From TrEMBL:
It comes from Geodermatophilus aquaeductus. InterPro entries: DUF4267 (IPR025363). This is DUF4267 domain-containing protein. Keywords: Membrane, Transmembrane, Transmembrane helix. The chain crosses the membrane at residues 12-30, 50-67. Pfam families: DUF4267 (PF14087).
Length: 125
């Protein structure tokens, strides 16, 4: 049980840090790759700031997962799931107004489902 969680938290933590770091240094590229309309990804002056704010949060959550021992990780996973849900809601709202591509909404749904599954699996133990 502990080894299973240890591997999962290290994988998710490391992935979060890598994605956050990429977004921190290439916010327009990552926004475009995730489905933001090309004209918005290139021309919106606020976009880099907003992406970098999300990137900083991703890096912080990834670091928290890497340093949090298994017994205290319950709260970290709850916060990560809450933030993932809020991210998905923001993407779905943007999709409804036509600001992002369908793949962003699908990707957000997959990420939310995987996060919810992981949190539920961890909390059942």
């Amino acid at each position: 049980m502990s080894n299973d969680w240890d591997g999962t938290r290290k994988t998710v933590g490391t992935l979060s840090i890598w994605i956050g770091t990429t977004a921190l240094f290439a916010p327009r590229w990552i926004a475009g790759a995730l489905g933001v309309r090309p004209d918005a990804a290139r021309g919106d002056v606020a976009l880099p700031l907003l992406v970098r704010l999300g990137a900083a949060r991703n890096i912080a959550m990834g670091a928290a997962l890497l340093v949090t021992p298994a017994p205290q990780a319950r709260r970290t996973t709850e916060v990560a799931l809450l933030l993932t849900g809020l991210d998905a809601a923001a993407v779905w709202t943007s999709r409804a107004t036509g600001d992002v591509r369908p793949r962003s909404a699908v990707l957000s749904g997959i990420v939310l489902a995987v996060a919810a599954y992981g949190a539920a699996r961890w909390h059942r133990r």
